[in-house]
Every structure is written in structure tokens, then in C-alpha cells.
Amino acid sequence: PSADDLADEMEDVDFDDEGGEEPDAEAWETEDEGVEDGMEAQDDSEVTFCLHSASVFCVSLDPKTNTLAVTGGEDDKAFVWRVSDGELLFECSGHKDSVTCAGFSHDSVFVATGDMSGLIKVWRVDAKEEVWSFEVGDLEWMEWHPQAHVLLAGTADGNSWMWKIPSGDCKTFQGPACPATCGRILPDGKRAVVGYEDGTMRIWDLKQGTSLHVLKGQDGHQDPLTCVASNQDGSLIMTGSVDCHAKLVNSATGKVVCVFKMESVAPKAPAGEGEEAESNSVESLGFCNVMPLAAVGYLDGTLAIYDLSTQSLRHKCQHESGIVQLLWEESSAVVYTCSLDGAVRLWDARSGKMISEYRGHSAEILDFAVNKDASIVVTTSGDHQAKVFCVQRPDR
After folding, report:
1. What pLDDT is attached to residue 375?
2. What is the pTM of this model?
């Protein structure tokens, strides 16, 4: 609120009210809580969206115009709002648990929101009305089909579900009896790759409902899968796991092409009584569209850039704290990371150098999205806020 707004509010306060209660402490909290005394809280953002009242877990931009964002949070709420000014378009109401998944269909006609309990709702964006809802088991992930009004979701019982929207025609893909922890529809729109908690990975034929390839045992991971990605033509898949390995897989044959292992930094002193040994895992990964490079982000703060043609580590970019997610720019070798220290960073994958850093959150960033022309980044955070950062660079 500006000074004028505050002045207006003050006029409404009745100071003669003797029996007034103590002012609500929360209403008097200052903006820069958690910032050291005398330090100005740095905020590089253009727009802040403040309607969530708890951690904001997820964000997506509408693919067609990149002018709308949908965010979901721990307050059981999801909102569709305008990126240019943070103006609320509508609330996706009716969830009864934390909204952990949200996204727009390929043509921005529909927006889907899913909560942890497994309630998924789809809204028609222009009419701002709910057109479909369905309840599955505990929701792990959700994704729209790249070319059709089809929604895919994975649940804690190991199933993946596919629906036509808004008719609701449904198909299920039965995985092992453990959570389907991550999934991705391949660019051809005919197959999906799903990773599971037992370390296995399956490539599904979406039309037949059959599994084309199963990677398990030595070919799979030793620990739960955390993320999957595919390159632009879908010929290569990459899987990441709690076991700190990233595997490159040929999607046509289901064969592992190579394994990227993060060699541990000098062993830490053994954990003392009650201390946790420092854990590490692959948190996010992705392929570069313009060069044969892949990026892997780790919980220990390492961003590794791998050269796919030589299957070797090209650069290691160190962050002070864990990487939550990474995204590549659509048409350059620039990779974006968001981390637990609340900053967004841009890295040049060719040189391994950091290009720029943006701050504004007072807690960890939990999710982020980059628009098509790589001019803005939208972030969500544990500080209950979503922010829009302008990252346009002079050299474009």
C-alpha cells in the first residue's frame, strides 16, 4: 500500500474507542521481515502477486499469449492472474487441500488445477467457469498434452490417468504398487514417460495403454525418480533420481545411453549424534534446444552442464543452496535456476558463467516459469508471494 492508501485507512480509525482491543500483531508486520537490521531488502521484481496466504507451490504461464499466470498454494487456493499488473482474473475455488499442480492447455483455452488429495478441476479461461472435475488418489504430478485437450496425471498408488477434456473419457496406466513420482508426455504426443518411487521408469503408448519399455534393476535407478525430461524431438529422455544419477535413455529402444554421476565433493565429517548426514539428489533437469547440452540441478546447489556429444561434464556452476528447478531458454544456451536462497539466476551454458541474478523473495523459491521470448520470469515462494521479474537483456 502506498502512503496515500495508509493515510486513507488512518482516517477510518476511531482513536477515541477506549475499549478497543490490542491491534492485531499480524496486521502490523513490516514488509522486510527476516532481513538483517539496516539492510534494505532487495527486490528486483516488477509485479508482486499477494493473494495467497501461505506458501505458493506452483506456477504456469498460458502458452498462447504468455500474459496469464496460474498459481497454486498451501492455502488450498489457485488463482489465474494477469502477469502485466498482477490483476486477479478469477479464483479456481473448491479445493480442499494444497494446490500443488496447475497449468494451461496447449492453446490456453483451459486451465487445470490439482490438489494433494487428488481433486483435479478444469476451468474454461474465457468464461472463468469450471467445466470438469475428477477425484483420484493422492496427486504426484499433472501435465497437459502438447497438442490436444488431454490431461495426464500420476498418483501415489502408482497409476497414471489420462482424460479427454471436457468429456472426461478416461484411461489408466497401471504402474508398480508405489507412487508415480514424475511424468512427461513426449513431443510426438503418442507416448509418455513415467518415473516411479521404486527407481523404475516406463515409456507408455498412450493410445494402446501398454508399456513400450520398462527400465528397472541396473537400467533403472536405485532410489525414487524425481524428474524426467525429453529433448525437442523426443528421441532422448533424461531421468533424475534421489540416487544422484541422471540417466540418458534412447526413447525408441528404451536403452540407457549413458549415466551422469555427480562425483561427491570431499566426504563430509561423519554426522554426529542427531545430525543429518548431508543428502543430495537430482532435483531438476532439461535439454538445451540449440546445442547438444543438458543441465542437471542438484540439492547440494550444483548445476552441472553435460555435453551430450562427448557424454562428459562441461561445467559445474555452484550455488550456495539447493537448486529447486531449472529451465532452458527456448532458443539459446541460457539456463535459469531457482534455489532455496530465494534467487533466480541465469547461466551461460557455453562458458559456465553466471549472467545475472534476481532477488525479491524472503524465502525459498518453489517453482518458476519463463515466457517464450525469455523476457520475464514468474516465481512462487514460501513467502506467500508470486513475483514477475523482467529479465530482458540488452544483447538480444
Report:
1. 94
2. 0.86
